[in-house]
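Q: Give me the 3D complex with iron/sulfur cluster.
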Amino acid sequence: MEQLGLEGMPARLFSCTPSRLTTWLDCPRRYRFTYLDRPAPAKGPGWAHNSVGAAAHLALARWWDLPLPRRTPSAARGLLHDAWSTDGFSDGGQADRWKGYTGDMVARYVEEVDPEHEPRGIERTVAFKTATLAVSGRIDRVDDRGHELVVVDYKTGRSVLSEDDARGSLALALYALGVRRTFRGGCTVVELHHLPTGTVHRWEHSEESLQRHVGRAEAIAAEISAATDYPARPSTLCGWCDFVRVCPTGMAASGGPHKPWAGLAEELAPLDDEAA
Ligand code: SF4
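A: Here is the predicted complex, encoded as structure tokens.
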């Protein structure tokens, strides 16, 4: 139910995406740069690891647009090549090596996917409201597993993930609630599909755990709404911030921006069957 304002009118809901909320948690100054300052300060150059992630996501989304007989691993590799961007790589050789590797990664991933089992949604925007929030977000994939809908989030980074990442993710919990509202079906399971290792990290939420995430989201939004100041929250992670060049505090904390390709693994891990 929406809150009543002073004059009996519904209070205005705080509109947000999960990343808006987590950006605030990471650093209020970065929140200001990203969402408030207009024109926004110039960002640094694109990151190579983002080029990898964007191309893999696009290829996996477009794969489902192919007619059923063409949903093959080699088609996924071809779509990856079509979607490839060289932004952020040190040179053409590095970009080419990663293009080949990422193509193999998506091809291996779809080998484990049943091409006949159409997802309920691909790159789908979902939305729902709480007492104080209007939440929206775009989900990589929504699966219909027969008895319920499942949120699938692709990950392409080098960080090793675990079930805890799926359990603790504010975004995934809010997506599950968005799926319920948008698709009008049950949804408690969220999954992180880590493409480099071929692993799936799954968590089944309870009503209590979902409501805990909602409470957390509402508390963050209340903090943002009440904010009059947007202090820098420096850490060694500032070297990864798109705005570090315009943030003296972050520059001092991190020693400056990382190289655009620094987020890539130094060695390309073998994509063998064991890893899958
Ligand atoms: S560089 Fe660091 S302190 Fe500055 S805005 Fe980015 S995250 Fe915040």
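A quick observation: The CA atoms of residues 73 and 107 lie 4 Å apart.
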